[in-house]
Amino acid sequence: MNLKQAKELVRGRLSDKRYEHTINVKKMAVKLAKRYGADKEKAALAAILHDSAKEISKDEMREIMRQYPQYAEGGESRPTPVWHGICASILARTQWGVEDEAILSAIACHTAGKPGMSKLDKIVYLADMTSAERDWPGVNKLRKLELKDLDAAMLAALRQTNDFVLSQGKPLDPVSKAAYDDIKARVNARG
Ligand SMILES: [Fe+2]
Ligand SMILES: [Fe+2]
User: Fold this and answer.
1) Which residue range or ranges hold the HD domain (predicted)?
2) How many structural domains is the chain composed of?
3) What digits encode the pLDDT tens for the residues 57-95?
C-alpha cells in the first residue's frame, strides 16, 4: 500500500476532525524523520495509518485481536485506549498489505510506547502528541525538545502521558510503564 492509497483508506474510515489530526501527524512525523535521518516514506505511512482503527467499536477491535492473537501483543488484557493502535497494525498487516515490520511496530505502539522503541516508533509516538492541532499545556515545550533530543523528548512524553493516566484514576498499561523505565534508563546511562 502506498501513501496515496493509505490516505484514501483512512479518509473513508475517519471523521473530518480525526482525518485532519492524521494529516498533521504525518507532517510532524516527516519533519522529525528528516531531522533524525529516518525513512520519510515509512514515517509518513505509519503516521497516516496510526489511527485508522480508532473509530471502530470495541467489539470489533476485540474480534480483530482474537482473530490474530499472534499479533495482538496481549491486547485484550491491556487498557482499551491502546487497542486501536494494535488493531490498526493488525489490519495493515493482514488486510492492507503492509509488510514492513518497522511501520507495523510504529503503528502498534503509538499510544503506549514499548521498551526498546526504534527511531521510527519514537517519531510516530511524538508526532501524535505534538501534531499542529494539539494544544495541551506543555505541548510547545515538547515540540522544542523533540527537535533537539529524541530520547529526552520520549522520556518527557511518556512521563506526561503516564502521569496523566494515573491522575485520571485509570489503569496504567504495564507496557507503558516498562517503556518509561526503559527510556529513563537509556537517558540516564548516557549521562
Ligand atoms: Fe491513536
Ligand atoms: Fe493520533
Assistant:
1) 18-133
2) 1
3) 999 999 999 999 999 998 899 999 999 999 999 999 999
